[in-house]
Amino acid sequence: MKKGEQMQIETERLIIRPFRAEDEPALYEYLSDAEVVRYEPYHPMSMEEVRAEAVRRAEDKSFWAVCKKNGTLIGNLYFDKGDLNTWELGYVFNRRYWKQGYAYESAWALLDLAFREWDVRRVTAMCDPENTASWRLMERLGMRREGELKQNVYFFCDEAGNPIWKDTYEYGLLREEWKQR
Q1: Residues 147-152: what's their mean pLDDT?
Q2: What is the pTM assigned to this prediction?
Q3: For a tag on the chain, would you pick the N or C end, based on fewer CB atoms within 10 A?
């Protein structure tokens, strides 16, 4: 099955599926949480913003809803194709489900499918160096830190309108490395 033909992925505890507009309440629960979006390029979202975001994600095949087997939406994965058959991985999870292995389980399942069936050549992921949980997850997935980019991005400005620059860790993983695991 090709990536464009998005389907459902099942793991021992999870169902990873396309987003639906009706995911709005559960999406609001974590996208409105300042701690959850602390390292994201957006502020906590209002109900109106999440309503629009739920509709947008339902149409965007790069976003995957991560649900417990009972259907409860607990987070999301982002997986988008870039140049040279390189894909970018991202993830955001409801704080109530942190430190339970759900991000690892879902990301592992998506990477395994991507490398085995979609002929993905390379996967990258980035995070703020202060986001220890994120870069540790990337390393658990077998990704290697390829570099630290200094003051390479900003999402917000201070009161005077000056950019608040952030550093970025960049990680990568090749199909050959995944298959050798």
Answers
A1: 94
A2: 0.92
A3: N
